[in-house]
Amino acid sequence: MNKELSTGFSQLKNNFLMKDGWIIAEQVFDKEQIVTTGSNFMFGNGYLGYRGTFEEWGKDEYVACIVTDTYDTADGKWNELCNVPNGLFVKLQFNGEQVDIGSGDISDYQRSIDLRHGLLNRSFSWQHSAGQVEVSTEKFASMTSLNTLALHYRITAKNSGEVTLLSGIDGDVWSLNGDHFQTMHPSQEGELLAITSTTKELATDIAVVEGVNIQGGSLKNEEVVKQDKQIFRKFVLEVRAGETISLMKFVEIRHSNECDAPKAEAIVALQQDLENGYQKIKSAHQQAWEDIWGSTDIQIEGDEAAQTLTRFNLFQNIIATPSHASLPIGARGLSCQAYQGAAFWDQEIFNMPMFLYTAPAAARNILKYRYDTLGGARRKAKELGYEGAYYAWISGKTGDELCPSFFFKDVLTGRPIRNHFNCWQMHISPDIAYAIWHYYEATDDWQFIVEYGAEMFFEIARFLFAFGFYKSFRDRYELIRLLGPDEYHENVDNNAFSNYQTKYALEKACYVFDHLKASNSIALGKLMEKLSLSEQEVANWHDMAAKIYLPQPDPETKLIEQFDGYFALEDTTPAVIKTRLQDPGEYHGWPNGIAVHTQVLKQADVIQLFCLHDDFDKEILQANYDYYEPRTEHGSSLSPSAYAIVASKIGYVDEAYRNFMKSCFVDIANTGKAVSGGTFIGGIHTAACGSVWNMTTVGFAGFAIHDNALRFDPHIPDHWSRLAFHMKYKGQGFNVEITGKKLELTADSDNSAAIPYFSNSGEIANLAPGERATIGA
Amino acid sequence: MNKELSTGFSQLKNNFLMKDGWIIAEQVFDKEQIVTTGSNFMFGNGYLGYRGTFEEWGKDEYVACIVTDTYDTADGKWNELCNVPNGLFVKLQFNGEQVDIGSGDISDYQRSIDLRHGLLNRSFSWQHSAGQVEVSTEKFASMTSLNTLALHYRITAKNSGEVTLLSGIDGDVWSLNGDHFQTMHPSQEGELLAITSTTKELATDIAVVEGVNIQGGSLKNEEVVKQDKQIFRKFVLEVRAGETISLMKFVEIRHSNECDAPKAEAIVALQQDLENGYQKIKSAHQQAWEDIWGSTDIQIEGDEAAQTLTRFNLFQNIIATPSHASLPIGARGLSCQAYQGAAFWDQEIFNMPMFLYTAPAAARNILKYRYDTLGGARRKAKELGYEGAYYAWISGKTGDELCPSFFFKDVLTGRPIRNHFNCWQMHISPDIAYAIWHYYEATDDWQFIVEYGAEMFFEIARFLFAFGFYKSFRDRYELIRLLGPDEYHENVDNNAFSNYQTKYALEKACYVFDHLKASNSIALGKLMEKLSLSEQEVANWHDMAAKIYLPQPDPETKLIEQFDGYFALEDTTPAVIKTRLQDPGEYHGWPNGIAVHTQVLKQADVIQLFCLHDDFDKEILQANYDYYEPRTEHGSSLSPSAYAIVASKIGYVDEAYRNFMKSCFVDIANTGKAVSGGTFIGGIHTAACGSVWNMTTVGFAGFAIHDNALRFDPHIPDHWSRLAFHMKYKGQGFNVEITGKKLELTADSDNSAAIPYFSNSGEIANLAPGERATIGA
Lengths: 777, 777
Fold this sequence. Notes:
32% helix; homodimer; alpha+beta; five-stranded antiparallel beta sheet
């Protein structure tokens, strides 16, 4: 592990290096990994994601700039976000020779992402019979002006000669499911270049405008070239030995779903960018990131890898999330088009908690998106014979179900498989209710409940009542034919996770109704009229909440059965069933995959329940952890984090750390395939990224809210000398600092109120502004 | 069709000939068809079934004598009836040469079954350098003494010479699923031979005793030979040219599930047989058959094939049915061990109606069997989390579920398929309730209801209430996750057939409860105590009966949807989906067979509903017939009869006749495979046989009971000059005779009461003993 690296760098994993707890880099270029490294080094700002690729690359190297709210369906295929024309396109020649990673002798190669400031850097030295140049580039997606990309491309010539720079826009983009552009018009706009394109299905106009500023060298010639879907400016410059040429390049992106005149507005913005200059834009961008980290950073001392990976994952959660708008967080964020740029339950359960306690306005936005897509959820419910809001399993702009009925292929027969994520995986609706309640609990934002939350609660409760069945002879409600989080087992009854979530959602809906009735009967009256909601319906929810069947821990074994009949399935392990594969590409689940008739789980399910509900004692947690962990394949990137959190709660610190690192590494040194059967399934696993916050705070720090007070129960790994982070609860900020078994809670001095917390005595105490309290040893 | 045949014979199909409307014969021996012809020519008496094989054959030629109530499981395989040692075993040599169908020149070969008298005959002339003999044999299973088999084996020598006869018992029997005999003891018992054997699982003792009487020839030598599992007597006789030797052979079978000392009792019986002699035993047997046909025969004039096939199917239904005991009717009767010798819904819905209106005591026996197996049905219900009686899909001696969870194999992957006949095909229980009610309706046997029926009704209702779900938001009960008759579609909701049957069963259970309460509160009280049954439960049944969802005919199309979502499946045909097969042996159904995601049905489902419930007008019948028929694969032998019956009701006489003949031919000139993938699946399709009665009476004659009165609505094929049969209704016999559009109803002169019937005026009239009425033109 201790081979010689550049100053300050140490090894993270495989080719990945780290530095200062903030920088991830590679100093070896592996052509075979470009599909993965493009994700590893990506940057973005929640409005767009830009893959960590090289300026001279194109579609074959998976260059992508994925822009929010550009959903489109091409040629009857899947709905997905557009990969817009690449405005950061630059090619370099020196003395007539192409300068890139595949030509000449390359030395001092480095690509690095600076997580602290969202900067992607690349540098290398190129030696050839034609001469020698050093190239270094830096680019970013502005955190202050979200439509803006900026690039600083520097060439230092070791010999005098001729530098040719092609800088422009490449509209020949990589796209997973069909070409989304019915038209693509490159144009010269004064000193600027532009490509305007119109999407196929929804005729969204997208404009990408580019402008440059060159310093150094001596310009001999300049021309504009349009070819196919590219437009670029060709600069020929003479350069002296030792001279540096700086190309400062700006890109503005606009589309007609966000403004009226995309191209015109982009041109105006770009002229402003040129006026402001690279340094000013970069400074504002860096300051914005400093501010974000001020509220979001998690500091780990004594474990540089854990520190760096934690920030990598926090960074990914931040840049994946369209905090600026009411739009979904994609399951692969903005790292590529995979998974349709659409939200799953991941959004509320894995991505949202970090925002909830660090940037509540962003959490509010996430939930506002669910409010705005109630129409789609209502349409789904109706289509499937229910009432209320059955949220889409795969939710894009409108909230209509995007998940197709036939998702996978049976590789053994070539026949499509009818999966039922779109009609049976009903926990999505109570999961959203759960998140709304937690938003309210963490922010006291009752106004949000009045304006949006109540309607969602009521429509979700309505759906749950319609979905559930009253089993008369047992005098209880049951949930029949569903999928829990463990997707290998479809068509099950009374999935523990789903049943507990359903009860919770119904109870909160009833509470909101009762509370509104007492506090704001006019608002309630209007809402009841809007929804044609009767008191009888609410009585029904009360009844269902009281009588819904909750699988209980067995008195002897303490085990909670994942679903009815689970324990009667073949008791075996992931390793054993893998030997039964006839083809490595086989889907393990429904209808007849290798896991279906066994107890092998794709991912945490009962264990996931424990992450969300703190009602089970340690003995139960431990028994279930011990039982379910060896039976879990972790076939989902959501899985290790749940095990990490519950291991922490049990006090299984080593297990917690092992799962924590497994989760943190999901997107670094990815060992999974990014392309399978010709389909790109790579990109950033945004939910796993979001879960880093949960694993450190809820897991290692043992954070929970009980009785409107903070509770901590820290169990950090022995080799961590310090774990620290900042949170907000009901508008009051505080720092948490854990050293050994001791936790120090420090209220921000500018707080307006005391913060209730559980002190060592087990009583609720109040932490005044600026005050510090110690919990634990 | 008019090639030259022996006198009186005409062609039926392929090699099959017919004569006198009673005899089916073949005059060409096809070695390839022995597995099928063994079933075609079988005989039996409801206690045992004996395949229509040759005396000299053994296990390789599928010789079998299947005996009721000998259930056994060998080597952990399937539970099935035993094929007992073959007591009718005879081998013949002439002048040292084996005489059989494979040696010498064979002429004048004929094998025939005389349906009228249950006699299997075989004859042939054998010519060889060693000489010439004529052989003719006749055998039967006595209809008066059910444990008795008899054989008359005649040899006429054309030359003088030496006849060697081996006659004895062959214990080396064919068995589908393992060897059922842990011991097998051949013994000589004075003049008799015996084999006693003990079954593997349940240690049932089975005795087969054989004795012979030889006439003609001159006995030169006689010895007893035991070898392996055979014991036989070797007779060497001298014979003159033209002389006939008659071997008259009797076999007695007894087992320890029916008597205490099987061998001793069989010996006594056999000695009596020898005393009585062949002719006396045969005469009694023939008379018994005459009596059966007196009440059961259906006469068709103008269509010899239809007449012969009708009798063939009635015959099979009679000999498959253990009218002597409370035992199931096997799905393959007693023709072989296939389908575990166990009852399905076939028994009540397809086999029972004929008995109900011709031999009500046998119908009572069928239902008594269901009473006796309530324990198994209760165990099944409990195991699956219900209450009451969930009858087994495959029901043997105890009524415990015999249907395995993994039934078929996926031939494309070799993986077992989890089918759910054993847990989701719930219509079996209401089907039995339906049959009990019809038994009561046809017989007025309230005493049966008091003693047995009420308990079954209540336990079935209990199960149905436990199985059903109350869908609160629709204020209705639903049946979720089941299979209807169409087994290609598992995991469906609200299957029309099952829902209507369930409502019917609940209504009748409530009626029985109310009626018992009013008429026999003591008996009811005892039963309620026995079952711990409360009035609240009965109120629940009332509620469920009133509120169960019944899929209604669409107001416009008149179509009833087979189950929720059926019409949304791919609309295609059996022929189209067959082109998608990757292997001809693929199972078409669950979980991913070619029919699953399409509207293609295995068998009549909504159409079957119309067979049982007369509440739908012709317009509805016709619309559904027209829709479902082209989508039906008739992959079950139960299917054509339902289409025949409903076609008759609509007045689609040609369609009715086509389906009638298709059903009648299921077991004659069988084009299906009898052995598939090494597993024997052949044998007699007993339900299709039973349905011949339903097709002629309910179908062509339009028979139904309404308001406790007979109703007829005849639609017979144009080329039938006459259709006539005898029935009993509430103890009163009557003849039905249809000629053209006219139906004559003639009450038996010895009736004790008038028979109510719907006259031409649409009013109920009464038919006095001996009186005749005309219905129709």
